[in-house]
Amino acid sequence: MATDAQLFEWLCRMGDNALVLGHRVSEWCGHAPVLEEDIALANTALDLIGQTQLWLGLAGEVEGAGRDADALAYRRDVLDFRNLLLVEQPNRDFGHTMMRQFLFDAWHIEMLSALKGHDHEQISAIAEKSLKEVTYHAERSADTVIALGDGTEESHTRMQAALDRLWPYVGEMFLSDDTDRAVCDPAPLRAAFDARVNAVLAEATLTRPDSDFAHKGGKTGVRHTEHLGHMLAVMQFLPRAYPDAQW
Amino acid sequence: MYAQMVKSTGEGVRSLDEMDPQERAFQERIDAGGKIEPKDWMPDGYRKTLVRQIGQHAHSEIVGQLPEGNWITRAPTLERKAILLAKVQDEAGHGLYLYCAAETLGVTRDQMTRDLLSGKMKYSSIFNYPTLTWADMGAVGWLVDGAAIMNQVPLQRTSYGPYARAMVRICKEESFHQRQGFDIMMKMARGTPEQKRMAQDALNRFWYPSLMMFGPSDADSVHSAQSMAWKIKMNSNDELRQKFVDLTAPQADYLGLTIPDENLKWNEEKGGYDFSEPDWDEFFDVLKGNGPCSVERLEDRNRAWDEGRWVREAMLAHADKKRAAKLAAE
C-alpha cells in the first residue's frame, strides 16, 4: 500500500511524462512535414496535455497542500520534475520525434493496461481513459516508424540514427524503486515492450542496438538532462513573470 | 476576410444577353440560388478566380497557424494550452478542407503549396503581424477571427458547392475561436494592471490590421463586381468592414478598452459607427512582402517543407513497396 508521499511522487511521474512529452510534441505545431502530420501531432499533444491535467490534478489532491495541476506544472523547477529522460529529449528532426514517441508509447500502453484494473479507483479511471488515446498513439507511431525505416535510404539512415541516439533512454522506463513498486512495478512490463518493439523494428528494417546501457535520473529527479530547464523556462514564463495574474 | 484583392477576369460583368447559351444557363442557375458542382460546366474565369480565392484562403489558414503557434509553448495554463492547440489544429483542418475544395477545380495541393512557398500565391495580410504578448492570442481570436467570420458566414451560401460546404464546417469552428479569443481578452482586460496594459496594447496593434483584412474599398472594382455576380463574393469590402466595426466597438467598451481611433463615433443617421480608414500604404507594403513578419512566415513554411521532404518521399516509397508486395502476393 502506497503512502500519500509515494502516491504523490508516482502521480507526478505519470503527469510529468505526459506534460513534458505533450509540450515537446506541441513545439511542432505549424512546422510538420505535411498537413496531416501537423494535425496528428497536435492531436497527440492535446491528448497528453489532457492526461497531464488528470494525473497532476490527482497529485495535487493527494498532496493536500492546495496545489492544483497548473501549480504543479508551472511552479516547480527542474529538480522537482519526475519525468523520464526520454521525453525531455529535444525534437531534433521528425524521425527523432516519432522514434521518441514510438518508444514511449510502447511503454505507456503496457503501463496503462497494467493500471486499468488498479485498486485505486481514480488511477484506474485515468488509466482507462488514457489507454483509449494511447492505443491510437502507439498505432500511429509504430506505423510511422515502419514507413520511415523502410521508406528510402535517407529515411532509413535517419531512423536508425534516431533509434541509436534514443535507445540509452529506454532502460529508465523499466527501472523500479519503492515508489513504483508501491503503485505499479514497471519492471515486469519489459517483456511485452520488447516483443512489441522488436516486431516493429523488424518490419521497419531497423537494427535494435546491442547495448542496453541506460541513462537514469529523470523519474527520481536526481539528474535531468540540460534540455529540461530550457523547456521549463519557455513553458513557465508567464506564470513566473506575473505571479499574481489569473489567465 | 482571408482572401484579399482576388482578381477575376478583369473584363467586367456581361449581361445575360451577351452570353452564349451555356454561360447563360450557368449564370441563370447561380441567379436562382443553385449550386455549381465540380463536374458541371463553368466559365474558365469562374474556375480560375475560385482557385485563387480558395487557395488564398487555404494558405491563410496554414500560415495563420504560425502567429498563434508562437504562443502554444508559452500558454500560461494547461487549459489555455489545450484550447490554443485545438484552435491551431482546427486551422490546419480548415486548410485541409479548403485545399480539397480547390482540388475539385483541377489544381493539386502540391502545386498550390509550391505557389505559396515561392510567393506567387498570397495569404491574408494579417498573418504578417507579430504576436508579442499573451493578450495577442485574445486579440487574434476576438478581432482576426471576428473579421474572418464576417466574410465567411455569407460564403456558406456561395455558388460553388464544395466551397460552400467547407465553409459551413469552418464557420462553426471559427465562432468558437472568436469566443475563446474574447474570453482571453476579458481575463486580461479585467486582470492585473500589467495584463490590462497588454490587452490595450494588443488592441492598439491589431485594430487597423484587422480593418485591412477586408481589403480596400472595392466599390468600383470590376473584379469584385464579377465575383459578386458569380456569388463567390457576397458583400462589398466596405459593407463588411462597417459591420465589423459596428459589432466590435461595443465589445471594446464592454472590455473597458479603447479602440485607437479618435474618429470612432456612433452616427445615428447612418445607424453605424464613423471610423478612420487604416493606412492603405501600409497594407500595400504588406502585400508586397514588407509586412513585419512577411519574411519569417515564408521562411518558416519553406523550412518546414524542405526539412519534411525526406519524410514525404519515404512515406510514398513505403506505400509503393507495400502496393508492389501486395500485387506480387496476388
UniProtKB/TrEMBL annotation, chain A:
Entry GO CC: cytosol
Lineage top rank: taxon: Bacteria
SUPFAM superfamilies: Ferritin-like
GO biological process, alphabetically ordered: phenylacetate catabolic process
Pfam families for the chain: PaaA_PaaC
Classification via InterPro entries: Aromatic_CoA_ox/epox, Ferritin-like, Ferritin-like_SF, PaaA_PaaC, PaaC
NCBIfam families registered for this protein in UniProt: PA_CoA_Oxy3 (TIGR02158)
Protein name: Phenylacetic acid degradation protein
Protein's organism: Pseudosulfitobacter pseudonitzschiae
TrEMBL record, chain B:
GO cellular component: a single term: cytosol
GO biological process: phenylacetate catabolic process
Record field: transmembrane: none
Segments of this protein annotated with the region Disordered: 1-20
InterPro entries the UniProt entry points to: Aromatic_CoA_ox/epox (IPR052703), Ferritin-like (IPR012347), Ferritin-like_SF (IPR009078), PaaA (IPR011881), PaaA_PaaC (IPR007814)
Entry-linked SUPFAM superfamilies: Ferritin-like
GO molecular function, one term: phenylacetyl-CoA 1,2-epoxidase activity
Protein name: Phenylacetate-CoA oxygenase
Phylogenetic placement of the source organism: Bacteria, Pseudomonadati, Pseudomonadota, Alphaproteobacteria, Rhodobacterales
